Amino acid sequence: QVQLVESGGGLVQAGGSLRLSCAASGRTFSSHAMGWFRQAPGKEREFVAAINWNGGSTYYGDSVKGRFTISRDNAKNAVYLQMDSLKPEDTAVYYCAADLSYGGPYYASTEADEYEYWGQGTQVTVSS
Hints:
The chain is an all-beta fold. It has no helices and eleven strands. Strands 2, 4, 5, 6, 9, 10 and 11 form a seven-stranded mixed beta sheet that branches. A four-stranded antiparallel beta sheet has the order 1-3-8-7, with no helix packed on it. It is globular. The protein starts with a strand and ends with a strand.
């Protein structure tokens, strides 16, 4: 019932920036948490960032703290990931996910299996 469409991936030099976007349709998510995850070939899916229903609470994986920023615009049913100071180890497919369950007004899960709907993924490649 929920569709997520991602955009903004690409090739960037180390130290550069990218902004990923995720647009949702099919169901409003103004009361639900959203997250970003990433996965490189042969590696486990890794938590990147999450945000609660109104954007007042955000959470980040240790590897991206201080460099990435998650935000949302509920009027547009959209979530964003601003990525700064990119490193080659950030290279991965990045996925947007929506959690339609209710865990509380400030809750946003860091676990991939808590999210019900996923986008198709967008490739981010950071060169040396």
